Amino acid sequence: MSHFEAVLLGLVQGIFMFVPVSSTAHLVIVQHFLIARGSDMPPPDSPAMILFDLVVHVGTLVSIAIVFRKSLSALIRATLRETGALLAPQGGGRALGPFSRLMLMGVITVGVTGVLGLLLKRSFETVFGAPWILVFTLSTTAALLYLTDRLGKRPLGVKDIGPRMAVIIGIAQALALAPGISRSGITIIAGLFAGLKRRWAAEYSFLVAIPTILAASLVQAVEVRGVGGIAEVGAGPMAVGFVVAAISGTVALRLVLALLYRAQLKVFSVYLIALAALIGFGVLDGML
């Protein structure tokens, strides 16, 4: 893989990780496009490219840490403070603090996603190459994004996130294993339909993204461990892809948040419908 290709794929991952249009689908399309035009990069399903995809996915976690650094820092400090008070000798009988409770809800969400993900992973992988599946999932996501912009003012704040909502968002996040479904998009949609205010639907979505992506990366890294071909990409392009994904992801995340807060996610609905149409009419057959 050349450094130029690493930059291009890092940009694709960084932009589409947070833009609710499925980064994985776009990575695969661009990889096939480059290979069809003479690139000697390994195929998308090879151990080397799986590892590269993991690296750029983790790069986008840096974007989350940058954009939400104040919220994450406050959450961690407050959770540690509340946990310390709860474990202190005089802390017996105290109720779980609001920040610790939020962390617990995040654990529930990630746990539900993990269980369902392990159960459904193989099933989703077997239909990844079916164009009609992509047409359906992209069109469904487009419709849901459009509907979220038409929702009235959401009444619930972060303190209202309970086990029921945590499970709902966890189920939604597991559905992102299906081709054409964006993880950020579907979790924000689930939060909004569950009643969360737009800001908290976004912040909770990206909060649970950190352990979810790290866990998924670990699972896939274990799967490709010991399989030959990892050196085919090279350490240089992997580092470049990581950095580019982190930088472009930061810009994309800020853009998505601005559109979300202004109820303008329907902008992405138009793109998804156009992409679904191109796939449905066979225009992208050579790339899928």
How would you characterize this protein structure?
The model has no long low-confidence stretch (mean pLDDT 81). This protein has helices at 3-18, 23-36, 47-67, 69-87, 98-126, 131-149, 163-175, 183-193, 198-224, 235-261, 266-280. The two termini are 20 Å apart. By secondary structure, it is an all-alpha fold. It is globular. The chain contains eleven helices and no strands. Helices cover 73% and strands 0% of the residues. The chain has one domain.
Chain-wise SSE layout:
Elements: H1 3-18, H2 23-36, H3 47-67, H4 69-87, H5 98-126, H6 131-149, H7 163-175, H8 183-193, H9 198-224, H10 235-261, H11 266-280
Helix pairs in contact: 1-2, 1-3, 1-10, 3-9, 3-10, 4-5, 5-7, 5-9, 6-8, 6-11, 7-8, 8-9
Largest sheet: none
Structural class: mainly alpha
Mean pLDDT: 81
Oligomer class: single chain
What fraction of the residues are assigned to beta strands by DSSP? Answer: under 5%
Number of helices: 11
Please give the share of residues in helix. Answer: over 70%
- Uncertain regions: pLDDT < 50 for 5+ in a row? none
**Number of domain units:** 1
Q: How far apart are the first and last residues' alpha carbons, in Å?
A: 20 Å
The helix-strand sequence is HHHHHHHHHHH
Using only C-alpha atoms, the radius of gyration works out to 19 Å
Give a count of the beta strands, DSSP E runs of length 2 or more: 0
Described by the principal axes of the CA atoms, the overall outline is globular
